[in-house]
């Protein structure tokens, strides 16, 4: 703790548990302390030397290193939230599980991508064991977003390009509506992101679950350069907007005459109604 006496690893709870640092706590941690391990608290307080010593002593103890607080955050989640990539690196080397999700379904890599920290993303992927890497890249949080989706939504081009270089699926779809990163880029009117995704093989003819291609989402939008960029790559049948359900419903109703739609066999109380 800054300005106070440090507690000892494995000992009784001391100032680290009960006192806040001079700068106050990150909003993500308020109310968590009863559920936090000693290592959680050292990381929250950004006590680098103490955190590294605890990690060194507990190396190989996966249960301790991956212990989750009441928000399902591991020490690795907290190291990323507080932008401490060196702590994250040591946690990974010591055996912390990078695939564990917090209460929002985010892995530490999801958080790093959403925050746009290329250094943290690099550490998490570089020191993540190979058999963990692909599952983490493909994992979706409880909103249905992959790490690539989150980086795209925030517009972090360097993070997007790095994830794609590692093998992230550029055409991964949101489970709820089927949007890809390219659909998101069009929605956000980010022409640079559109260019980057297309360069890395994004399928311009991939449609959402409602049947919309990225090009069709450009209709009514201000950025004409995105429309021009996608038009030359999109097949003709996916350039025009599909007919609305209201129009289809109206057409189907017009197939019947008014006489054909009259019911003459309605009964009330067993008696036929007179028309």
Please report the distance between the alpha carbons of the first and last residues: 87 Å
CATH architecture call of the domain at 170-241 = Alpha Horseshoe
What topology, given as strand order, has the largest sheet?
1-2
Q: Based on helices, strands and strand pairing, what is the structural class?
A: mainly alpha
- Number of helical stretches of at least 4 residues: 15
Task: Based on the model shown, name its key terms.
275 residues; mainly alpha; Serine Threonine Protein Phosphatase 5, Tetratricopeptide repeat; two-stranded antiparallel sheet; 15 helices; 43% helix; disordered N terminus
Characterization of this structure:
This protein has about 280 residues and is an all-alpha fold. About 45% of the residues lie in helices and about 0% in strands. The chain has 15 helices and 2 strands. It has a two-stranded antiparallel ribbon with strand order 1-2. The model is unreliable at about 1-25 and about 245-250 (pLDDT under 50).
What's this entry about, in short?
By secondary structure, the protein is mostly helical. The chain has 15 helices and two strands.
Topology:
Blueprint (H helix, E strand, L loop, with lengths): L14 H4 L19 H7 L3 H10 L4 H4 L9 H7 L3 H10 L13 H8 L2 H9 L3 H9 L8 H8 L2 H9 L15 H7 L3 H9 L24 H8 L13 H9 L13 E2 L2 E2 L3
Antiparallel strand pairs: 1-2
Helix pairs in contact: 2-3, 3-6, 5-6, 5-7, 6-8, 7-8, 7-10, 10-11, 12-13
